[in-house]
Backbone:
């Protein structure tokens, strides 16, 4: 009888431990979904956003988690998705951006093509200034509404980050 009770208790302990680990892993996987929002014009702040994305991906990968990261550009963020000067628009390129454009473009390209970051541009913003679709960097997906895209991703469990 004592042997039976010990066996049952051992089975219960192992079951609880197993299900607890599975639940922890699921919670961690849920946390590996992040959406970044870029609607500002400061190249230094945008650079910090790209650094943050790289850092969070490194963290998740070191934890053996597969991150799913989205970057959504809205409004002034348009400046970081094209080489077009956007002359005559509120989003016109300035000296600070022109000085860093190649570097920032290369880092964005690496995040998309090497790290698998999914990048979206608000098509309403693009259309508002008359920017041709072929002027947007390759690999950037146009989304009808950037803010709606962010809201949808949040409803799917993505954490929202915006670098200040």
Residues:
């Amino acid at each position: 009888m004592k042997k039976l009770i010990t066996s049952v208790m051992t089975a219960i302990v192992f079951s609880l431990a197993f299900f607890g680990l599975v639940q922890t892993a699921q919670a961690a996987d849920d946390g590996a979904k992040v959406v970044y929002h870029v609607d500002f014009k400061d190249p230094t702040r945008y650079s910090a956003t790209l650094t943050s994305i790289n850092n969070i991906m490194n963290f998740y990968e070191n934890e053996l988690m597969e991150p799913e990261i989205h970057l959504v550009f809205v409004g002034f963020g348009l400046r970081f998705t094209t080489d077009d000067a956007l002359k005559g628009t509120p989003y016109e390129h300035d000296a600070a951006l022109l000085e860093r454009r190649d570097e920032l473009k290369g880092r964005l390209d690496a995040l998309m093509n090497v790290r698998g970051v999914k990048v979206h541009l608000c098509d309403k913003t693009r259309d508002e200034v008359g920017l041709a679709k072929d002027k947007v960097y390759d690999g950037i997906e146009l989304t009808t509404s950037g803010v709606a895209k962010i809201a949808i991703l949040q409803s799917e469990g993505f954490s929202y980050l915006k670098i200040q």
